[in-house]
Amino acid sequence: MLKSWKLKEIVLMSLFGVVFGIVYLLAIHLGNIWAGVIGPIAYEWMFGIWFIVSIISMQIIRKPGAAVLPETLAAIIEVMLGNAIGPRLILSGVIQGLGAEAAFAVTGYKHFNLAIMMLAGAGAAVFSFVYGYFLSGYAALDPSFVALMFTLRVLSGMIIAGIGGKYLADALLATGSLRGYAISRAKKGDAGA
Amino acid sequence: MRQLLHDMNPSVKFVAVTLAMLTLAFFFDPWTPALFWIGIILMQVFWSRINWKLWFVLMLPFTLGAFGYLWTALVFGANDGSEAILTFAGISVTEEQWQRALSLSFRVMAFSTLSLLFALTTDPVKFVMSLMQQLKLSPKLAYGVMVSYQFLPVLKDEFFQIQQAQRLRGVPVEESWWRRLLNLRHLLLPMLAGAVRKAERAAFAMEARGFTGKAPTEFYRPIMLTKTDFLLATFFLCVLVASCTGGILLTD
């Protein structure tokens, strides 16, 4: 998978991993404050934050793996920063990344418009929810409450990760620093859509 | 003895910790996670030299989280149709719900302690090197991560620089934390643009010095797998199996 990757794309991906690793850690701390009071549902509406690096990297690099790898690297870096959630994060990073990757793989890595980005956000949400269902034992909760959590997470994935990720990547493209990456070479209609 | 967990091979530790978490996820009785939690704490007491003050500070938010989980599982617990043992403010709790809520909270505590065991005894650089040497992580990815990790202090300085530069140019400091959070995007974009340039320079420098991304046959600092790693991993699994059987026996 990595053969077709240039080294600068890999380093870019891991640097994004560092920047978003920090953002993710801040978000976890923010979520923790709530979670003590209102329980695990506190994280649901903001879950999209944790999927965003997949979507930004995929838009810029546009190669198979550009969604799952940065999410995994961001998780490894979070662990290196010595956060208290530890190795469990790496597994959730891989799973979230796979969810986003699935949406791009299904469409053959050909389209990178807003709809696909939102689909990828939703994909990451679904994958991470299934994993959370298993690991955090949501089976013990009332089905309607679990359904509410699920809906919130998918919406968050679509809005925060999908729309937010698209917005950030487009804004970054506008700065002109992305020359030499697939996003700049893409046809006009596709990059801006 | 007190150095054991610090010296353990990071990959072996990582696999053991992950395996334990995935196994615990199958249990819904309160005893299994509680027993395992105690086992992990004892391992840390005897085999590590961690800073316990820091440990307590880091555990605090998780304890709060476990409490949040407890009441969520009580109020929104799946109804099993049996008789309520407790009714409070229109919420009735059955024996089954109470057991499960306790189990989930203990699970949060066991997971957090397990995570701290890893986080507080593992050197980050050795961890990535071990992922490459033992778990065959691609060297391109491993060294990419190492390069980015070294950029961390630079990124931190840059963050404050951009913030100060924006203030100098008259960007107001927002009063509400909500607005301040939204305005983070004005900081994030220049940070990301800077990251793109740094990535390009670093990659060029690596290639100029002959980095091809092929897996080396020799390492400057090899991370070893020793007998102690296997003994520790075995002990770890024994604790896991013991708490699972203990949980099953105590529930019946």
Automatic annotation (TrEMBL), chain A:
Keyword set includes Transmembrane: yes
Keyword Transcription: no
InterPro entries in UniProt: ABC_thiamin-permease_prd
Keyword annotations: Membrane, Transmembrane, Transmembrane helix
Membrane spanning stretches: 12-35, 41-61, 114-134, 146-169
Name of protein: Energy-coupling factor transport system substrate-specific component
The organism of origin for this protein: Planomicrobium soli
Automatic annotation (TrEMBL), chain B:
Cellular compartment(s): Membrane
Regions crossing the membrane: 57-78, 98-120, 230-250
GO cellular component: ATP-binding cassette (ABC) transporter complex
Membrane topology: Multi-pass membrane protein
Residues in the signal sequence: none
A Pfam entry, by short name: CbiQ
Major site of localization recorded for this protein: membrane
GO BP, sorted A to Z: cobalt ion transport
Keywords, ordered alphabetically: Membrane, Transmembrane, Transmembrane helix
Keyword hit for Transmembrane: yes
Protein's UniProt keywords contain Transmembrane helix: yes
InterPro entries noted in UniProt: ABC/ECF_trnsptr_transmembrane, Cobalt_transport_CbiQ
Domain of life: Bacteria
Name of the protein: Energy-coupling factor transport system permease protein
Organism: Planomicrobium soli
